[in-house]
Amino acid sequence: MQLIFQNVWLVPLFPFLSSIFLGLGLFFFPRSIKKFRRISSSISIIFLSIGMLFSFYLFWQQITGNQIHRYLWSWILYKNLVLEIGYLLDPLTSIMLVLVTTVAVLVMIYSDSYMFYDEGYIKFFCYLSLFTASMLGLVLSPNLIQIYIFWELVGMCSYLLIGFWFTRPSAANACQKAFVTNRIGDFGLLLGILGFYWITGSFDFQQLSKRFFELLSYNQINLIFSTFCALFLFLGPVAKSAQFPLHIWLPDAMEGPTPISALIHAATMVAAGIFLVARMFPLFQMLPFVMNIISWIGAITAFLGATIALAQKDLKKGLAYSTMSQLGYMMLALGIGSYKAGLFHLITHAYSKALLFLGSGSVIHSMEPIVGYHPNKSQNMIFMGGLRQYMPITAITFLFGTLSLCGIPPFACFWSKDEILVNSWLHFPILGSIAFFTAGLTSFYMFRIYFLTFEGDFRGNILNDSKKLSSISIWGSLNFNSEKNKLEKKPILYPKEANNVMLIPLIILTIPTLFIGFLGIVFDENTMNIDFLSYCLTNSLNSFNYISSEEFLQFLLNAIPSIFIAFFGIFIAFYLYGPNFFFLKKEKKELKKQSKIDVFWNSFSILIYNWSYYRAYIDRFYYFIFFKGLKFLIKVIAFIDRWIIDGIINGIGIFSFFGGEFLKYIEGGRISSYLFLLIFCMFLFFLYSYII
What we know:
The protein has 29 helices and 4 strands. A hairpin with a 2-residue loop joins β1 and β2. It is globular. About 5% of the residues have low confidence.
């Protein structure tokens, strides 16, 4: 048993080895290895599956009462500086290991079919394995130095995968945008790490929190400096988990292949920021101001992401802003001290969002032969609709993910989101109000995506029909104003259901989407809200107090407000984007004169659409402030350098040159020239005296 715990490092080693094998094969045998595409992908899947089974075993050992395991090896010894590497295995680590490996294995299986005809197929699996290994190494890290190393590896892999199709200018720009934005957060993270090392003299998570608490108890810490260090440290998760104001890279990251979008948004890159805040939670708890900042950043991010997602036409970008909003919920939960609720939502959201992104990939895969391979066409919901009759399995699984994200019982996200909503309301009603309102927006935009994609009539055949294209409203729906604009029921090309290799991961992901939420059901409200997940996080699985029917009924009664607001958002989406008879109602209204309410609604709709289309104007603000402003500042500095600083030096030189030339002709040694100059100057003097 002890031998197994001593070899936990094998979990990230397996995907790392597969990445090395594929990378060496591509480097030394670029032509030969391409003939063994299936074998190459199988190596990645098998190696990671071994790590997944190992992770499940470690998780089971943790929840059945095994102690926390921590192994360290000396890395750098210099005078009083000791840097160590190793791994920390505790309940949080074991949960994250299972989450990362399960999602990554399913994404790899899905990618085997999705990317099969891509020229960079083997390179994709090489990057994918390295990405997964980096995240697993980050999760196992016992100190800030080691976590920073894997943190940068995760950022590097995301750069490679987002820009995987780098020949497309938008993909090249997107990976650079993600890389630069995360460098800002990483610089803040480095400053925070060095600041806390200067305060406590340790990089180790456990020792750092312990020493900080001792110094704080004896009033030996400058709270202002400590707060700044904590905020700098928090800047890293702000960028990595796409929190306001460093969220701008996340929607552009959709330029990468869809399986990567699923992995980034579910279990790797964006989860890294939440994980770090959870790991540093004991330290942040000692600084109330920092906790308030974390909670408000989370609330603003959740609300902002939801409002921008309201009118997105791009399927993947709509899901991306949904991810941003849900990450805000997790950060909000951690900021108000609801540690378990934040991690619980991380788990439930990961499986639900992986299901949604893989479902969107299935949709895009079927749309590309019909509308074209450019993202503006294949990912545009304007050209979708009615896909449920052509892709029933994808539609059902996507609906399950949508219901989960909306917080509808008994799906997974209901249990975690409801806990966050209740805790945020109890902590501070304003935060609770923002969270509840955002929950309604979530239901609206998620079912808007579902209705535009899977319900109604198929719109893929309107691409070359200018009349039908002109009938599309700013919200992405069709206005059925005349018989001419009605869609043909039998388009030339039909979408097709994805193959079994892509459908199997979707079907498997519906299982945790349905049932994993039951891990968080409260078992006994009289014993500190104990539930299965809390037992996991407190390293024990003994003495369950099973919930009674009365307590479960009370729990559901407490959840009525969140369920009501979720259904209210769904109802609005159904009214605006549901079956065609609602559009027929609109057609009758349009025959009449528009009332003031209609005019107000149209103006409000345009306002919301512009807010969503221009991404809350934040990208434009950054463009004018940082790009245009910096460009103007550079021009001003260049002008000052060229015409003022250099101008003074050059002016002195020119003056000296012409002065020398002038004196050269005056001081020629001829007495007649001297007399002429003397007489001329006397003449000017007398003339001036006469005038005065």
